[in-house]
Amino acid sequence: MDFSTLQGKTLTKVEQIGEDVLRFECEGGEAYQLYHNQDCCETVVIDDISGDLQDLVGSPILLAEEATSEDDPPGYKHEYQPESQTWTFYKLRTIKGSVDIRWHGSSNGYYSESVYFDAA
User: Fold this and answer.
1) What is the mean pLDDT of residues 37-44?
2) Looking at the chain, which runs of residues are DSSP E strands?
């Protein structure tokens, strides 16, 4: 499912569940989640959330955008350099504010580093 599905929807609740799940509940009862099912030899987690998730509640989502990169964000320092990595960025905007969610996936190169967006 495409992350832009959230665009135009009004959220009633947003919650982070652990380090690898974000759940979005919408007016009308739909629910979605960003997540990763962890497997051997890889890690995919929410690295940073910039902005207040509560700014996404109660106003229509004006922008819901996803981007990926294998390059580190400017100024980012690793404790160790992974063999393979994927950064996934989610941008959400409402009239009340903006939230940028940064996920980091690392592995030995044979496992998925993807974040998934599906109906919950």
Assistant:
1) 87
2) 11-16, 21-26, 31-35, 42-50, 63-69, 84-93, 98-107, 116-119
CA 48 to chain centroid, in Å, comes to 9
What pLDDT score was predicted for residue 78?
A: 77
Q: Are 26 and 9 in contact (CB under 8 A)?
A: yes
Rounded Cα gap, residues 33 and 54, in angstroms: 16
Instruction: Determine the Cα–Cα distance for residues 89 and 69; give it in Å rounded to an integer.
Output: 8
Contacts of residue 105, defined as CB under 8 A and 6 or more positions apart, other chains included, come to 36, 42, 43, 44, 85, 86, 87, 88, 112, 113, 114, 115
Would you say 115 and 89 are in contact if contact means Cβ atoms under 8 Å apart? Answer: no
Q: Which amino acid is at 101?
A: I
Q: What is the number of other CB atoms lying within 10 angstroms of the CB of residue 39?
A: 12
CB atoms under 10 Å from CB of 76, counted, come to 12
Q: Against a cut of 0.85, is the pTM above it? A: yes
Tokens of 114: 């993807």
Supply 98's token pair.
Answer: 């903006």
